[in-house]
């Protein structure tokens, strides 16, 4: 009798389990379709935006002198050379400043810092800073670099402001990349008597470089495309000379803002052409970073 009861209970449990599996699979299919629909909607909207931009700006972008001349008061004349040079210089300085500082901070927090209350406070603040609006960093850069350090509305002020904007993202992604390195790799190195700094430089960092470069790609792309912080720092919308580090400067986002705010219809096409130039610059920088990431990937 007991055996029959146990058999019946097991059959009921098996039937209930089968029903749960089927319902979970159905629910999973529903969510898969919803997520795929969301992806397709995002791709469709992006494709529409790109089509509209290239339709309006490709002819102006291919105009001789658009990339090599200085801006003009007329929409069908002049170019964006100072803005391109400024954006390239801004990107280079941001990379040179944020990568060593950001990776160094991530290494200290993950490998050396003790687990104490003050490190927890630092980690929370870094995570919060990654979501702060860029105009707040512009106000910080205006107070520190323009006035306190006396750089004024120069390119170096804009570059350091964008570096502050990029640092939290790089620190967070670098910490995640370092944390993902298996402890067995560290323990094997320590077991052979290798010093900690040598273990980090020879084993931890090479393993984490691909993921760290992903964070660098995201942060630098955001910095190059940012306009709010540069407007606050003092970037101009019209420049007739190639900028230097301690001179007034432009940037491609500021050039786009300057063009799109003018009432003449031809400037809308110039703004679309400038957007194409900015997209190509970001794609080129991302391509270099992706190549370096693949080059250092550990297979």
TrEMBL record:
| Keyword presence, Transmembrane helix | yes
Q: What is this protein called?
A: Phosphate transport system permease protein PstA
The cross-references to InterPro entries, in alphabetical order and at most eight, read: MetI-like, MetI-like_sf, Phosphate_PstA
Q: Which UniProt keywords apply?
A: Cell membrane, Membrane, Transmembrane, Transmembrane helix, Transport
Q: Does the keyword ATP-binding apply?
A: no
- This protein's source sits in the domain of life called Bacteria
Subcellular location, record wording:
Cell membrane
The ABC transmembrane type-1 domain is annotated at 84-289
- Similarity-based family: Belongs to the binding-protein-dependent transport system permease family. CysTW subfamily.
Q: Where are the transmembrane segments?
A: 33-54, 83-109, 129-149, 204-221, 227-246, 267-292
Q: Which Pfam families match?
A: BPD_transp_1
What NCBIfam families does this protein map onto?
3a0107s02c
Q: What membrane topology does this protein have?
A: Multi-pass membrane protein
């Amino acid at each position: 009798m007991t055996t029959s009861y146990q058999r019946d209970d097991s059959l009921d449990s098996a039937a209930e389990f089968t029903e749960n599996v089927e319902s979970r699979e159905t629910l999973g299919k529903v969510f898969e379709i919803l997520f795929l629909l969301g992806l397709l909607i995002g791709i469709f909207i992006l494709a529409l935006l790109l089509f509209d931009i290239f339709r309006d700006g490709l002819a102006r972008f291919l105009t001789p002198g658009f990339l090599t001349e200085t801006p003009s008061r007329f929409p069908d004349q002049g170019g964006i050379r100072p803005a391109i040079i400024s954006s390239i210089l801004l990107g280079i300085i941001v990379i040179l400043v944020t990568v060593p500082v950001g990776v160094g901070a991530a290494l200290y927090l993950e490998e050396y810092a003790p687990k104490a209350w003050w490190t927890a406070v630092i980690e929370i603040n870094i995570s919060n800073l990654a979501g702060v609006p860029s105009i707040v960093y512009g106000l910080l850069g205006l107070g520190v670099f323009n006035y306190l350090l006396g750089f004024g509305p120069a390119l170096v002020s804009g570059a350091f402001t964008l570096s502050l904007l990029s640092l939290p993202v790089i620190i967070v992604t670098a910490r995640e990349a370092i944390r993902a390195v298996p402890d067995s790799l560290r323990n094997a190195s320590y077991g052979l008597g290798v010093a900690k700094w040598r273990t980090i430089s020879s084993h931890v960092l090479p393993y984490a470089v691909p993921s760290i470069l992903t964070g660098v790609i995201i942060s630098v792309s955001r910095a190059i495309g940012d306009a709010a912080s540069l407007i606050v720092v003092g970037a101009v919308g019209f420049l007739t000379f190639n900028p230097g580090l301690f001179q007034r400067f432009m940037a491609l986002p500021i050039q786009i803002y300057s063009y799109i705010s003018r009432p003449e219809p031809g400037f809308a096409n110039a703004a679309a052409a400038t957007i194409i130039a900015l997209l190509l610059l970001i794609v080129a920088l991302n391509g270099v970073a992706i190549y370096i990431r693949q080059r250092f990937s550990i297979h």
